[in-house]
Amino acid sequence: MSQDWKARTRAVHAGTRRSQYGETSEAIFLTQGFVYDSAEAAEARFVEAGADEFVYARYGNPTVAMFEDRIAALEGAEDAFATASGMAAVNGALMSLLKAGDHVVSARALFGSCLYILEEILTRYGVEVSFVDGTDLDQWRAAIRPDTRAVFLESISNPTLEVIDLPAVAEMAHAVGATVIADNVFATPVFQRSLELGADVVIYSATKHIDGQGRCLGGVVLGRRDYIRKTLEPYLKHTGGALSPFNAWVMLKGLETLELRLAAQAETARCLAEALAGHDKLARVLYPFHPSHPQHDLARAQMTAGGTVLSLEIAGGKEAAFRFLDGLEIVGISNNLGDAKSLVTHPATTTHQRLGAEVRAALGIGDGLVRLSVGLEDAGDLIADLEKALAAV
Q: In the CATH hierarchy, which fold is given to the domain comprising 258-391?
């Protein structure tokens, strides 16, 4: 791969492995295991597999390796390890790094399953976790200690779209030798270069924008080669969080159109935020590139576009929010995001229902909040659909 290739070219060609047949589209190596020429060759492979040698699909596979190489090239990372889902990536990144007695500082505003890993699983095994308001640098400064092993954050939080000052947090973490782990799903590899902003490890749920069409589960962890191969890989290959070859092939196809899709979706999301801001049925519209967003300037400093998701606070609470959701025709009710189809969910009763009303309120997840993932439909059609649904509130 040429180092001069731009991102869109890397997303189409990086990491390609061709068989002896010279296929145009990447091959799906749908195999669990691999055959060796001799017993001696098998022994040698298990001692140390070469760069293009494989032992077992739980450890690696040619199609999966193509996806790992391509997303690493797009992200600007030294290496990557693909996982069975986004949450397998989050779990692997944290569990492989930490042990009993370690200290972690995390932003409080997180996806419900991420909170479960930090609050329930890590603490069960003796890891101390401190939560902070991710937008308050003074809280980060007070919480990070000399013995802090890692910090964890969503670069844009789900679903309140808080934007974290990643360079500032990374500077504090690195001062004590802590590893910065950033879940970059909402910012996407197209709109934010989190490694360049100071993150050491970047996580994606490939289920979202990378697939982009609601077909497969997948995840990926990216970072320095030493971390990926010496810390993360041993944990994941022995605990079984590997991505299937078929799903890896789907993700490869998704990467080819990623930039084109996200550019169109983000532009539509911006148009929707502008059209809905100030609507009398809405208490607030949250979109990182809209001037009303609390971290608008920071978002523009760190990102090249505002992303594909906006959140709307429907005046009138849960009943009004449900009427809005039920009044939509084009937009589907689903807890997924990053799809070619526009999707909406009510976090308080779906993705964040486990947290309880008091915790949700502290996170800004009110009963009227809905999260809208903007797809590839016509912007005018979506605006008309949203306005019609708001009229029913």
A: Aspartate Aminotransferase, domain 1 (3.90.1150)
